[in-house]
């Protein structure tokens, strides 16, 4: 992963200045109560106070974190949270965290983890099992895929903090001009894109001649795996069985109908930021992205298409399910922590309904708790969240494996090679990828 996103791939969302103003006023009122304890430096430790060291990424919306930690310190005067702010890049944060955990570094009590890290951290013996702390009845309050992602060999190793999944953004005005509704299947998307482009040209819209049909993430990086999981699963295939007919057919569709068709060949170099820039500048009919993109697209200061964008589940193939790749972050506890009970108090608080509501309102983060999608305060700040719950209920995690980085790299190389050459020998490339996956699993002994 080159950059962190909601779900481990993009940038965190920006919120309106009014939200920042409210947070600033609230923080000023709490400053005396918090006594600076929400900061990152160790400082002097009062007698009888236990310090819990928390590794997280550097936030784009610091107000939400400061407010959450001020609340925690006000309610838990015997615990002091010290944050270690790691890199914004998911891969760089992973390198920092795993080095500390491998060395049983006592400067880590709790940590945030990407949705694809749980198996590695659990099977290495670095993460503390949390089964007894989060009973089954409480787990049901989270989206099933978010709990599945932190469950390894039947044991729970994390508590979901926020969730993400792939979504389809579309130009409402262009589809309306063509008399169309959002597409339900991938072939329909290709046809709708061409019809909408033709309608834009016929109407003489500025820049209509250069509008693409589709904008997605097809660079050789983690986002390519997410995008292709959605195509392959919605065709009834499996990422880890690339040489099976359903997976081959899905990859062939993307190679033949999307790359160089609905999307330009330049999409092979696009990640989240590039694909979003194309769409928000008015350069595409459809965009596949994460929930954070909504706030950007609706902001007239950032988006040329503000007010003209709709949101829908991703399409599927005939007979297959609409599939969205699961993203998001959870909190875990270091197995070697000297303060596991206090670390659990921090994790339980940060994943509570109250704090997930706070991050939804101030930072636009999609909660991992299902009930918050009917919460009036959350919906007032994020009206589009009402449409997201069904997508999150059906979200699909990437393969859970302690060697997921290797699996992802093998898949990235195969998928990018398969899509880059219009005449690629898909069966041969897929069989080669399958053999590499099998060798990687054999070395692991699983």
Explain what the structure shows:
Helix 2 (62-75) runs antiparallel to helix 14 (353-363) and helix 10 (245-258) crosses helix 17 (404-420). With 446 residues, the protein is of the alpha/beta class. 51% of the residues are buried. Residues 1-6 and 10-43 have low confidence and may be disordered. The chain has 18 helices and eleven strands. The radius of gyration is 22 Å and the shape is globular. The protein has helices at 17-34, 62-75, 90-102, 118-123, 136-139, 144-149, 172-177, 186-202, 222-233, 245-258, 272-280, 293-297, 340-350, 353-363, 376-381, 389-393, 404-420, 426-444; strands at residues 50-57, 79-86, 110-114, 151-152, 155-156, 159-165, 167-171, 212-215, 284-289, 309-312, 326-333. Strands 2-1-3-11-6 form a five-stranded mixed sheet. A four-stranded mixed sheet has the order 8-9-7-10. Strands 4-5 form a two-stranded antiparallel ribbon. It has a domain at 17-164 and 327-388: Periplasmic binding protein-like II (D-Maltodextrin-Binding Protein, domain 2). The longest helix is centred in the last third of the chain and has 19 residues, at 426-444. 43% of the residues lie in helices and 13% in strands.
């Amino acid at each position: 992963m080159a950059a962190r996103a909601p779900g481990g791939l993009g940038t965190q969302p920006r919120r309106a200045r009014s939200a920042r103003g409210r947070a600033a006023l609230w923080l000023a009122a709490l400053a005396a109560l918090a006594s600076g304890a929400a900061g990152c430096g160790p400082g002097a430790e009062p007698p009888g106070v236990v310090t819990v060291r928390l590794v997280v990424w550097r936030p784009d919306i610091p107000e939400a974190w400061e407010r959450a930690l001020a609340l925690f310190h006000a309610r838990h005067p015997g615990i002091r949270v010290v944050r270690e702010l790691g890199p914004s890049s998911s891969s760089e944060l992973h390198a920092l965290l795993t080095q500390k955990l491998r060395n049983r570094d006592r400067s880590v009590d709790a940590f945030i983890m990407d949705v694809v890290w749980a198996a590695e951290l659990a099977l290495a013996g670095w993460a503390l099992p949390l089964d007894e702390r989060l009973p089954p009845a409480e787990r049901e309050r989270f989206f099933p895929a978010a709990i599945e992602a932190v469950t390894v060999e039947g044991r729970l190793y994390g508590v979901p903090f926020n969730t993400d999944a792939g979504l389809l953004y579309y130009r409402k005005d262009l589809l309306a001009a063509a008399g169309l509704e959002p597409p339900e299947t991938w072939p329909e998307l290709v046809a709708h894109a061409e019809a909408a482009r033709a309608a834009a040209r016929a109407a003489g819209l500025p820049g209509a001649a250069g509008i693409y049909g589709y904008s997605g993430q097809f660079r050789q990086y983690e986002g390519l795996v997410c995008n292709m999981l959605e195509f392959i699963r919605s065709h009834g295939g499996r990422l880890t069985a690339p040489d099976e007919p359903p997976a081959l057919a899905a990859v062939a569709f993307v190679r033949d109908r999307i790359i160089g068709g609905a999307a330009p060949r330049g999409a092979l170099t696009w990640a989240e930021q590039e694909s979003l820039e194309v769409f928000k500048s008015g350069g595409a009919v459809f965009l596949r992205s994460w929930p954070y993109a909504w706030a950007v697209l609706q902001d007239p200061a950032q988006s040329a298409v503000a007010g003209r964008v709709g949101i829908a589940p991703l399409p599927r193939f005939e007979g297959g399910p609409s599939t969205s790749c699961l993203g998001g972050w959870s909190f875990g506890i270091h197995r070697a922590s000297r303060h596991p009970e206090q670390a659990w108090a921090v994790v339980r608080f940060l994943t509570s309904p109250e704090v997930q509501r706070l991050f939804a309102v101030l930072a636009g983060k999609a909660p991992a708790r299902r009930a918050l999608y009917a919460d009036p305060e959350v919906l007032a700040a994020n009206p589009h969240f009402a449409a997201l719950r069904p997508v999150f209920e059906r979200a699909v995690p990437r393969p859970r494996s302690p060697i997921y980085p290797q699996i992802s790299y093998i898949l990235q190389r195969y998928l990018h090679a398969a899509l880059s050459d219009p005449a690629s020998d898909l069966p041969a490339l897929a069989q080669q990828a399958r053999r590499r996956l099998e060798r990687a699993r054999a070395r692991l002994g699983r």
